[in-house]
Amino acid sequence: MTRHFVWDIFVRIFHWTLVVLFAANALYTNPEHSLHHYIGYAVAALILARIIWGFVGTRHARFRDFLPSVSGAIRQLREMLTGQRKVHLGHTPLGALMIYNLLVTLAAIATTGYMMTTVRFFGVQWVEDTHVALVTWAEISVAIHVAAVLIESRRLRVNLPKAMISGYKETTGPL
User: Fold this and answer.
1) For 154-165, what is the mean pLDDT?
2) N or C: which end of the chain has fewer CB within 10 A?
3) What is the pLDDT of residues 83-140, one digit of tens each?
4) Where are the domains of the chain?
5) CA 134 to each of CA 50, 114, 130, 138: distance values in angstroms, whole numbers, following the listed order
């Protein structure tokens, strides 16, 4: 078993704080209550901080370490379908696509949520509909993300949730 430091403290705190805040707003708060708005502002601040960290952070936190790649995603799907076991230290190609998807989606949710609090867009139906559709898309994406993490953890024999807590990936296979 080889231990690799992958996820810095900022990435881990960002990840788990975002999980808690998104779950709170999606499942527990009343959208008309100010707490829902404050949580939305906190999510927006987190997303902004993560974007900055994506340029100045540690190796595996930087966007250049996990650029979106259709060919890489297809290669990873092929590995999965043929039973090949290739462990990636940072994000996998499919994981990278999901990270970008979630960052853009959550930023758009925060933007439309803020728009609904302004005089210009308050009560404007397309803004509300877009906000609701984006939240639904985010919920679907989160479900896919969690399922993929569990499937890949089992397939690769790497405890990915534990790595996002400790910062270390423990691997036995080829990198």
Assistant:
1) 94
2) N
3) 888 888 999 999 999 999 999 999 999 999 999 999 999 999 999 999 999 999 999 9
4) 2-167
5) 20, 14, 6, 6
Q: Does domain 2-167 have CATH number 3.30.230.10?
A: no
Give CA–CA dist 21/26, Å, rounded: 8
* Nearest-angstrom CA–CA distance, 18 and 71: 29
Can you tell me which residue has the tokens 């601040």?
45
What is d(CA 143, CA 149) in angstroms, rounded to the nearest whole number? 10
Share of the chain above pLDDT 70, in %: 98
Task: Tell whether pTM > 0.90.
Answer: yes
